[in-house]
Amino acid sequence: MKIALMFGGQGAQYSGMGKELYDNFSVCRNVFDSADEVLDFKVTDLCFGDNDDLNKTEFTQPAILTLSAAVYELMREKGLKGDYAAGLSLGEYSALVASGALDFKEAVTLVRKRGKFMTEAVSPGVGAMSAVLNLSADEVEKACEDASDFGEVMIANYNAPGQIVIAGEAKAVEKAERLVIERGAKRAVRLNVSGPFHTPLLKTASDKLSLELKNVKINDMKFPVITNLTGDIMLKENIADTLTKQVMNPVKWEHTVRKFIELGADTFVELGPGKTLSSFVKKVSKEVAVYNVEDLKSLEKTCKGLGLEC
Questions:
Q1: Is 89 a catalytic residue?
Q2: Cα angle at 24 between 267 and 275, to 5 degrees?
Q3: Which residue, 67, 104, 219, 253, is the most exposed by fewest CB within 10 angstroms?
């Protein structure tokens, strides 16, 4: 069995996430408490209560990273050993923490700033993102090109076959949405996000993040991490540059999954809120085993499937 660990990105958050694990496992409490120590707000209050701030980028990002890191530490305690790791966008930080490349406290502070930089990069209402369902990447790219008279619009996420996200200036995104429907897409679903992430419109955020990364210590990795900037294994010396570019370039998640499979991964385990990445993997391959851990029920199912003690 070769295990690929996966960590989700923004959009996976939900009220109450992580509370069962926090209440039942000290290793999870330790991670949440560490985040509370270094941040200017309490992640525990944000995740466990009914808090609108959970959906604000600058708060969402450290919250998801905290839960993802807590679940990883729990599964490591249970005996799970990953051969590779990757994360979608923000999830790349969780993967790097799991690999040992980034210290958790430094990483959670960094993604708090990353979220602020991304929010500030484009004024509210100027940009938009939309998920295009059941249309080829080539057709989506053509629609974006044909909508460019209305402003910048491009593919932001290659998530899985039949699941592409476009982003850019709102009027151009709206035009591209109409075009993809005309050309056979099943749906174009506008995403509830604060900006056109993973496009050149986020350059100011990328520049600010680059300065912050100069002060972050990067360690050797315990196992390879595949970056969704390129879909290839990340080298230690390229981590800061990769994280800088990642903010304003497309997320190549489908490429990442195919790289896992090329490397021999036959078991995928999603750690953290939601099962979005699990669903993407299933669209890429029906031949691999897929699990997730986010609460007690999924923990029990995954431990049973992997032969671990619960």
A1: yes
A2: 35
A3: 219
198 is catalytic: yes
Strand pairing class (187-190; 163-169): unpaired
Quote helix, strand, coil % in the chain, to nearest 5. Answer: 50, 15, 35
| One-letter identity of residue 73 | E
Choose, from 68, 89, 99, 206, the residue flagged as catalytic.
Answer: 89
The residue behind tokens 């995954």 is 302
What is the rounded distance in angstroms from the CA atom of residue 310 to the CA atom of residue 277?
23
Both structure tokens of 66: 């905290």
- pLDDT digits 0-9 by tens, 63-118: 999 999 999 999 999 999 999 999 999 999 999 999 999 999 999 999 999 999 99
DSSP string covering 134-196: S--HHHHHHHHHHTGGGS-EEEEEEEETTEEEEEEEHHHHHHHHHHHHHTT-SEEEE---SS-
* Amino acid code (one letter) for 273: P
Residue 33 contacts by C-beta under 8 Å, 6 or more apart in sequence?
A: 44
C-beta neighbour count of 197 within 10 angstroms = 27
C-alpha closest to that of 244 among 215, 197, 207: 207
| 79 DSSP assignment | T
Alpha-carbon dihedral 242, 243, 244, 245, rounded to 10 degrees: 50
pLDDT in tens, 262-305: 999 999 999 999 999 999 999 999 999 999 999 999 999 999 99
**Contact criterion met (CB below 8 Å) for 280 and 264:** no
Give me the catalytic one of 68, 99, 194, 198: 198
Cα angle value 62/225/87 (rounded, 5°):
40
Decide: helix, strand or coil at residue 231: coil
